[in-house]
Amino acid sequence: MKVEARLFLGVAVFLWATAIAYGIWTHSDQSFSHGRIEWGGLIALILSGGLLFICGSFFWFVSRRIDPRPEDRPDAEIAEAAGEYGFFSPGSYWPVGLAGAAAVTGFALAFVQWWLVIVGVLLLLFMIGGLLFEYHVGGRRAPHA
Fold first, then answer.
1. For 77-93, what is each residue's pLDDT tens digit?
2. Where are the alpha helices (DSSP H) in 29-136?
3. CA 64 → CA 31, 69, 91, distances in Å?
4. How far, rounded to the nearest angstrom, does the alpha carbon of residue 40 sit from its chain's CA centroid?
5. Domain segments of the chain: what residues?
6. Which of 53, 87, 101, 142 has the largest count of CB atoms under 10 Å?
C-alpha cells in the first residue's frame, strides 16, 4: 500500500503547489482578471488536493498495519505477486445495467430533468442490489455448508 500512498500524496502535493502558482498567476495577470484572484479554479485545486490527501493518508495508515506486499519491497521477485486477486463474475450482466443507469442519471443531471434523476437513482439502487446479491439469491446461489 506504500506505492498507492506515495502516488496519492504526491499528486496532492502537486495540486497544492499548482494552486499556489495558479493563485499568484491569476492575481498578477492584468489582462485576464484585472488583479483579482480567480476563486473557482483555486478552490477546485485545493479541494482536489485535499481529497487525494485523504486517500493517500488512508493508504499510508493501512500500509503501516499490514505486512509489506511484493509491490512495496524493492527486493521482491515478480513470482511473489502471482496468485488469485479475487473473484470476478464471468457471465454477469449487472455491470452493463449499472453503467446504463449511471448514464441515465448523468444525462438527467446534465439536462436538469429531476423526474429522470429520480428514475435513474432508483435504477442505480436496483442494479447495485442485483450486483451485490447476485450470488446470494436465485439460480447462482452458493450451496450452504
1. 888 888 777 777 778 89
2. 30-33, 39-65, 94-110, 114-132
3. 49, 11, 37
4. 22
5. 2-76, 94-140
6. 101
